[in-house]
Amino acid sequence: MGLRHTHNLAAQRQVVVTGYGAVTPFGSGVPAMWQALLEGRSAVRHSPMLSEIKGLRTTVAADVPEVDARWIDRKKRRYMSKMSIYAVIAAHEAIQMAGLTPDALQDVRTGVCVGSTTGSTCEIDHLFSEVLKDRNIEGVKSTHFFKIMNSSCAVNLGQALGIRGRLLAPSAACATGMIAVGLAAETIALGKQDVMICGGADELHALTVGVFDTLEASSRGYNDRPDMTPRPFDRDRDGIVCGEGAGIVVIESLEHALDRNARIFGEIDGFAMTGSPGDMANPGIDSLVECMEMAVEESGLGKDQIGYVNAHATGTLRGDVAECEAVEKVLGCDIPISSLKGHMGHTMAACGVLELIATFLMMHNDVLLPTRNLQRPDGTCGRLNLLTAIDRRRVNAALSNNFALGGINSAMVIRRSINDG
Amino acid sequence: MTDSEIIELVNQSLINEFELDPGAMTPDAHLIEGLGFDSLDFVDVVVVLQQAFGVTLREEPRVREVRTLGDLHRLVIEKKRELEASQTGSDSAGRAG
Question: Which residues, in sequence order, are bridge partners of residue A19?
Answer without folding.
Answer: A250
